[in-house]
## 1
Amino acid sequence: MMKKSVTWLSVLSVSVAGVTSLGFSSAYAQSKATSVKPVTIVVASWSGTNVTNGIIDQQLARFNKTHPGIHAIYRPISGDYETILKTEFVAGDAPDIITLNNGGQAPTFEAEGAVVPLNSFMAKSHYSIKDFYPGAINMFISGKTVYGLPRDQSPLALYYNPVLFKQAGISGPPKTWAAFQADAHKLTDSKKKVYGLVQTPQEPRWAQFVYQAGGSIMNPAMTKMTLNTPAALKGFSFFINLYRHGVAAQPSEVGATWGGQALGMGKAAMALEGAWAIPYLQDTYPKTKFAIAPLPKGPVNNESLDFPTAWSITKDAQHPQQAWEVIQYLTGAGEAQWVEQGGLVTVRKSLVNMPYYRSHPIYSNIIKQMSNAIPWTFPNGFDQYVNSTLGNETLLAVEGKVTPKEALSQLQQQGQATLQNGGQ
């Protein structure tokens, strides 16, 4: 929800000299096995796909072979990830390492002291963050403090059905807002319940149109709402009017639960999704052809929202130095392994030319979008506003019960009140 400054590179007290490669030197990797029982480090994340879980298991297995003094194990968490973790923090029994998600999770855990700063570990290891995409690393930096190192990311891109495009006489994906709207009209057949765009009308989808019009959601410090501007209204109105004109639909209207599923069902000609939709579509709807393009450009730019995750050390870690060794590996040599085995998009600029991406060109336009993406996040205590007010007001606008201007006015007022009350 904000575009953080990239000046962190100049202010972090982290030495960038002496880093040799993504392997990162490690005292533990050079040590000899002893009879001393290795330190156990528990690594946790939400329970993802079998592919994701398998990659993490293999990453840690390789780490354990070269670090005899440490035994890292993976514990996927099923259910409400954040709620379960908060319960474990209260009990003083949280994992040593967790995955921090985008949205409000990272600011919340940072503000509550659930995860520890990594600056001192990075300085001692001469660990460089220059190779990370700004959109991937910025969200986990508060002021000069680094709380997490990126694991994966994905900006939103335009998924489309080339078969439906050809049937409608459209030669390729839209490159501008005007073309996007015109194509959506041509691609919509309401009698067949096929729509130009199928998307849940939520802030992580319309915010990018606000940015593309030159507006923003909040100021960089996340202390003031900025939805009361002509640019914000222009971007929000463009998104809302796609529904009001009948060329966009909610997933439930076509029997789907999200845009990617609607695309796979052949009910959506376009959807705004990230890299997570690629394996889903390939595995669940192998007969449905799809392609990916950069987002159409708005009046100012074609900025996208980015959804990065990061590895962090928790306050409950009994052996933080060993936990750091694990994170150093996962974000170094392990990151290349993540790419090679089909994880989400890399967070490192140096890895975008790996053979995997050359042999999987479907990722190319998502990678192109990464340099022009803003991490999706909001401040600590803002969850209720995001989960209720934002969605409710947007839906009222989509249904024509309020105008886009009235909806933004309510979002501005209630958002500012929430900020002033410290998220209460």
Note: Residues 1-34 have pLDDT under 50 and may be disordered.
## 2
Amino acid sequence: MQLIDYVIILLYLAGTLAIGAIYEKKASKGLESFFLGDRSLPWWMLGVSGMAANTDLAGTMVISALIYALGTKGLYIEIRGGVVLIMAFLMTFMGKWNRRAQVMTMAEWMKFRFGSGKQGKAARIISAVATILFSIGTMSYFSVAGGKFIGQFLGMDDRLASIILIFLTLIYTVASGFYGGVVADLFQGGLIFVAVIYVSCVALFTVDLPETFTVAIPGSTTPKTWTLSEWSSIVPSPTIDLPGDYAIFNLFGGVVFFYLLKTFIEGCSGSGGYMLQRYLAAKSDRDAGLLSLFWILLLSFRWPLVTSFAVLAINYGLTRGTITDPERILATVIAEYIPVGMKGLLIAAFLAAAMSTFNAIINASAAYWVRDIYQAYIKPEASDRELIFQSRLTSVLVVVIGLLLSFNITNVNDIWGWLTTGLGVGLAVPLLLRWYWWRFNGYGFAAGTVAGMLSAIAAQGIIFPFFQHTQYQEYILFLVPSICSLVGCIVVTLLTPPTQKSVMENFYNVTRPFGFWGEMSRNLKPSTQAKIRAENNRDILATFIAVPWQLVLFLIGIVVIMKQWESVKILTLAFLLLSIGLYFTWFKHLSKEVKVETEKDT
């Protein structure tokens, strides 16, 4: 980099820290301000913020490496998490279900669902602890990738680079809270969009891929040779033949099926970590839907970006030498293809992507400690000033612990796979049952969550080494935690008393979910029951349209950069037809809410 590049990066960092200072006073008014921006933010700001938080540097590195090595198949692999396919479920029904509770965290929601007695307290505490631990693990994962990227440019150790990056984020996060974070995301989202447009143009006008080419695969000294048609095919094949670390994907059809199943479990469960914070901050059901739509549309631009990096990396291999570590192709491409000045802007954009994600994780995880443990059980009489101090202290601790754990991580893809497939599914099973089964109680939730966490850790530490880098790795990571969690949920629920009826009736009347709710739904007037069924049926149908709609939208961006124009035509037609279906099943009904009247009301 040249002096102008460093000046641009420093100006970006100064601007971000200035936002923290400007909004410090607003964030310090109270917990609602610090964690939800007083629920006063417009849907489009929340949508931009969500996109910026999801366009993380670590994920961008992993996805670029997968597209480089597998072509369009990389998108199907990233159904596990990088496609953020949970957004389709949040858009059609899960976002509004969460918002209706009017709580600050998912753990506080447990009181709404299971009551304030022993089972509600057990579920709330376990949920808070599990979420904080998951956030620490996620922080470790993101810090490794950020260090790899920044360290290569600044010529410093990867760990030192990640420490600097995260602590800069920590400064404005603890100062300005959620509101300042969202405003910073607008600034950072603009930089990310500049990066998308510029890199995509470079790839489109610079590279014409040959009919055959080779790519490097992590963990293998043997490169993989692809034909362009096979590499860019939009139809996933049942099996592939990859060496090294990516051999785990060779039973491709089965792996993708499990990823889709995982997505449906997580989507219908309402899990989403820091993503849910934007829905809890939404003003209305309509805003929850609109912010989701805007979020998905903005997130679709990530896919031409990662494909552009993959295409340029292949071109680099053809003309200058193979990139031996696919997880470093971002840094290599920027160093080799991007001119002075624009290079600094692009690095600032990826710093923005990393810092936006760190901000979201730090702020959301602090909320669980302060709201669900400290204020709920340790010191209920604490003042707003004391609670804000606790929020900032927790933010620091999450960052420090996450950094310490990150020092043992070397392969970004491996830890991402474990977080999303193993631990993610283990935690999602109890989150799923809470919405749809009236008999499920807080004790069952707590037991299932603990079983999911412990079995995910055991699968990674004890069982996983026997299957590492084999075709069965992904199956083990998926099946062991999910089965253990499900057994824990059902056994403990059936051995303990059900949730208090009045609590379940209130939950059902406010949330209006589909599923097995027995007399809770039968207590409503027939006309109200009919309206709720109509809304539920529309939401279910819309979800089955929204999932392929999102996948097709993201695929379009990929094949445009690959210059596969026949595929572009087919996908565009499919997208238009799915969009029409989504309009009639979901969009035109956004503003309609069901008024619940019980028989007692009449």
Note: The chain has one domain: 3-601.
